[in-house]
Amino acid sequence: MNKIRIVFTATMSAGKTTCINALLGTELLHSANEATTATITEIQASDVELIRAFDSNKAIVKEVDALTADTLKVLNQSQQVQEILVKGKFNFSENLVLIDTPGPNNSRDESHKNLAYEFIEEENFDYLVYVINATQPFINDDVSFLKFIKRTIDSDKIIFLVNKIDDFDLDKESIESFINNLKNYLNDLGFVKPIIFSISAYRALLINKFIRQEKLSKKEKRELFSFLENEHEIINLAYTPFSPEQIAHIKAQKRFECLGDEFEDYEYLNHIYCNTGFPYFEFSIKNQIFLLNK
Ligand SMILES: Nc1nc2c(ncn2[C@@H]2O[C@H](COP(=O)(O)OP(=O)(O)O)[C@@H](O)[C@H]2O)c(=O)[nH]1
Ligand SMILES: [Mg+2]
């Protein structure tokens, strides 16, 4: 079976790490409002648990056979560590490798920039997911980084995620016009037919944590419940690769089987999860694995 390698990249704090956590369904990687990711982290589903950290010469500096978020956090912040390989029992195909990278715009640390650029230049991946922060779009850092990506990577390999859509004030701003403007902006940069998903990775992660009965902080609880109550639809599927039939199929997909049939709010939860936009992105990834191994 061929493995499919997906790298997540973006300017700082756009939500790369939160997206990967949402795909994992758990808060494995440390995410915060400061620049936390100082390393390249590769994550694979496996029967065994493993964390292996490498220095800049690719020599192993630490290896442990248990997977904890705390160990990862420490290694991620260690000056000595440049790459981390993570294996564990995740709820996705063993053929998928998710790669978290540091953003290129951490002015405190020039090596962040180099690492992000070097990794992309090596092109050792099948897809590049570029995460855009909807609350802070089109900043200068994005422009130069996007121009570099356009020059370096085949456009067919790029997926754009517009994240933090939940932060929009829908009475004042329209998601549709935001996405249209973004599409025009990407066109101007040379991305002819960009694929764009609008998502709230944070909400998708909260729902996943809730379902797995992981501990939520007070703030997370508040946000989850207000989101469950207000159920506003924040997605825009205009620039996704899906037909109306496929969209209907994705909406109707069975998720969260772990809750059992007797969980009465199943359909509602599924509906709310679809409203985060995240399942459409998830589906596109699963579809790529399927196509690659057909
Ligand atoms: N409102 C909102 N906040 C988010 C979302 N995704 C991430 N964040 C927050 O943005 C901050 C940076 O996220 P992180 O994933 O660490 O960004 P990274 O630097 O790109 O890896 C954290 O405080 C996250 O909780 C989202 O969909 N909505
Ligand atoms: Mg990060």
From TrEMBL:
Keywords: GTP-binding, Hydrolase, Membrane, Nucleotide-binding. One of its GO terms (molecular function) is GTP binding. It holds the Pfam family Dynamin_N. It is found in: Membrane. One of its GO terms (cellular component) is membrane. Its main location: membrane. It comes from the Bacteria. InterPro entries: Dynamin_N, Mitofusin_fam, P-loop_NTPase. Gene3D superfamilies: P-loop containing nucleotide triphosphate hydrolases. Residues 6-164 form the Dynamin N-terminal domain. One of its GO terms (biological process) is mitochondrial fusion. PANTHER family: SARCALUMENIN, TRANSMEMBRANE GTPASE FZO1. This is Dynamin N-terminal domain-containing protein.
